[in-house]
Design brief:
Layout (H helix, E strand, L loop, with lengths): L3 H7 L5 E2 L3 H7 L3 E6 L11 H12 L3 E6 L21 H15 L14 E4 L1 H4 L4 H7 L6 H5 L2 H7 L9 H4 L1 H16 L1 E7 L3 H15 L4 E5 L12 E2 L2 E2 L9 H9 L3 H10 L5 H13 L5 H14 L2 H13 L6 H5 L3 H7 L5 E4 L1 H6 L1 E2 H8 L6 H9 L3 E3 L2 E2 L5 E2 L9 E6 L3 E7 L1
Parallel strand pairs: 2-3, 2-5, 3-4, 5-6, 9-15
Antiparallel strand pairs: 1-6, 7-8, 10-13, 11-12, 11-14, 14-15
Length: about 425
């Protein structure tokens, strides 16, 4: 067995671990799980630390379980939250679970015949037939209210600072999660639960149930909650979450998120979100510190994680899209962009609309630059710019005799005007 604890420790992925866990994992192949509440039909990058823990666990020779919380998703976890979450119906949860499994398959080996192949489990499958009376009799009686009240997640919500208080539904969450661990201990020989540091209280409730009901030994491990050096929230952009689903967050935007991380964060993230070796990361970090302006760490981080979440082809497209603003791209590169990526690349660039029939008839470039778009303040300014060879249409220089036509449309809808190196204007054909 590889030393899993050693691996996640140097990567900065270990926050707290129950004594004896390292020795337990070195004895033989073990089973561990991470819970994911299916509140959306995609994971976002906030989920990635847990997924990476499971992958490292599998690489070390152990068996990972991804628990999609169909039952717990119906309740809502109080940890780290000030309000109760909206509850989802079963059909929505089932749809979300299928989408999440497909995404997890990019990281974890679910399909091989290896004894440590990953499995996806859903706590709704064992909770749906559990009556309330059975649950409070068989599970509830083993954990005291005093024990449950001592948890930080409960104390914060019941404190005088919280105006909302806490519903009984949320209060029971730790019991339901604890029962998951007990069920997997019995059914899958699972002896370890992993999660974010805010989950410690819920996880240890599970180890306590295993001890009290089965007289068994179970273990807990948490990773730090990921933060950004500037104090803003990790995994968020101005548009909200950074999702793993390409429809919700395009590969271009996904790539840009990692490319724009600070030096301090990039040094931390490259250990957590890639599978590069310690030696590779140390060498890369040293080179980056010698020439930080080259942003070697950010580029390698963005490349590795975009390829892993999307594909090598999507990475290549994201790099091409990123290069468009720096002037070293061609008309062909532009025409390969889909509408969403095109608009994201030129987000904030001034736009104007021109009727399609005018484009079909052909419209001279001077009229486009001044009268139709206002990109140039007058026909004279437009002509001077054209004479100075500083006007480009879709990255290609044009002269005064140029006329805009259907052949110039990107995605049959856009034309990119450019004056000099950095002044852009988007024409949308309607």
């Amino acid at each position: 067995m590889k030393n899993f604890i050693e691996e996640v420790t140097w990567r900065g992925m270990l926050h707290d671990v129950m004594p004896g866990t390292e020795e337990h994992l070195l004895e033989q192949m073990r089973v561990a799980y991470v819970g994911i509440d299916p509140t959306a039909d995609s994971l976002h990058i906030g989920h990635l630390v847990g997924v990476m823990l499971l992958k490292h666990f599998q690489i070390a020779g152990h068996k990972p379980l991804a628990l999609v919380g169909g039952a717990t998703g119906m309740i809502g976890d109080p940890s780290g939250k000030s309000n109760e979450r909206n509850l989802l119906d079963e059909a929505t949860l089932r749809h979300n679970q299928e989408s999440i499994k497909e995404q997890l398959g990019r990281f974890l080996d679910f399909t091989s015949d290896a004894p440590n192949a990953a499995e996806l489990v859903n706590n709704y499958d064992w909770m749906k037939n559990f009556s309330f009376l059975e649950f409070i009799r068989d599970v509830g009686k083993h954990i005291t209210v005093n024990y449950m009240m001592a948890k930080d997640s409960v104390k914060k919500r019941l404190s005088s600072e919280s105006a909302e208080g806490m519903s009984f539904t949320e209060f029971t969450y730790q019991l339901v999660q604890g029962y998951d661990f007990l069920h997997l201990y019995r059914d899958k020989k699972c002896t370890l639960q992993m999660g974010g540091s805010d989950q410690w209280g819920n996880i240890t409730t599970g180890t306590e149930l295993v001890r009290r009901i089965e007289a068994g030994k179970a273990y807990a491990l948490t990773c730090p909650l990921i933060t950004k050096a500037d104090g803003t929230k990790f995994g968020k952009s101005e548009g909200g979450n950074i999702w793993l689903d390409a429809v919700r967050t395009s590969p271009y935007k996904f790539y840009q998120y990692w490319l724009n991380t600070s030096d301090v964060d990039a040094e931390k993230y490259i250990k957590i979100f890639t599978f590069l070796s310690k030696e590779e990361i140390e060498e890369l970090t040293e080179k980056h510190r010698e020439a930080p302006h080259l942003r070697l760490l950010q580029k390698r981080l963005a490349e590795e994680i975009t390829t892993m979440v999307h594909s090598a082809e999507e990475l290549e497209n994201a790099i091409k899209a990123s290069n468009i603003l720096f002037g070293n791209s061609t008309a062909d590169d532009l025409k390969q962009l889909n509408e969403k990526t095109f608009l994201e690349v030129f987000d904030g660039v001034p736009q104007a609309e021109i009727a399609r029939d005018e484009i079909e008839a052909g419209i001279d470039i001077v009229t486009v630059l001044n009268e139709k778009t206002g990109f140039m303040k007058s026909n004279g300014e437009a002509r001077r710019a054209l004479t100075a060879n500083s006007i480009s249409v879709n990255r290609e220089k044009v002269k005064e005799d140029f006329a805009l036509s259907n052949n110039d449309l990107i995605n049959n809808q856009f034309v990119l005007l450019q004056s000099g190196k950095k002044n852009y204007f988007v024409v949308r054909v309607v």
